Amino acid sequence: MTPEPRFFPALQAGAVLAALGVALGAFGAHALKSQLTAELLANFETGVRYQMYAALALIALGSTGRPQRAGLWLTLGAVIFSGSLYVLALSGVRWLGAITPIGGVLMIGGFVLAALDARRA
């Protein structure tokens, strides 16, 4: 008897990212609108949008019930991509923008892994 394969809890990660995305989106729209420049607010909103893309993908992947390689990549990508944009928008520290593409590459890799896993299924 082979043990059950262990895999990243994509559904749970997606649900947490989605809940945080809604909360951060509301925070940005209401509390930050008058506090940030249009450019920094746009950075914050981009972070929320891509966090929600990753969250919805994770929920979909987790709902399949099959082991997925993409979950961890998508989660790390969303945290790094969106997180760096949130910190950049709130602090104005521009060099954080150099970290953002790392998260983007991880998210792209996660979507590629999801496609490869779907092809195997």
TrEMBL record:
Predominant localisation class: membrane
InterPro entries associated with the record: DUF423
One protein family per Pfam: DUF423
Keyword Electron transport: no
Compartments, record wording: Membrane
Keyword Transmembrane helix appears in the UniProt entry: yes
Transmembrane segments: 47-64, 71-89, 95-116
Protein keywords: Membrane, Transmembrane, Transmembrane helix
UniProt topology in membrane: Multi-pass membrane protein
Protein family according to the UniProt entry: Belongs to the UPF0382 family.
Protein name, entry field: DUF423 domain-containing protein
Source organism of this protein record: Deinococcus rufus
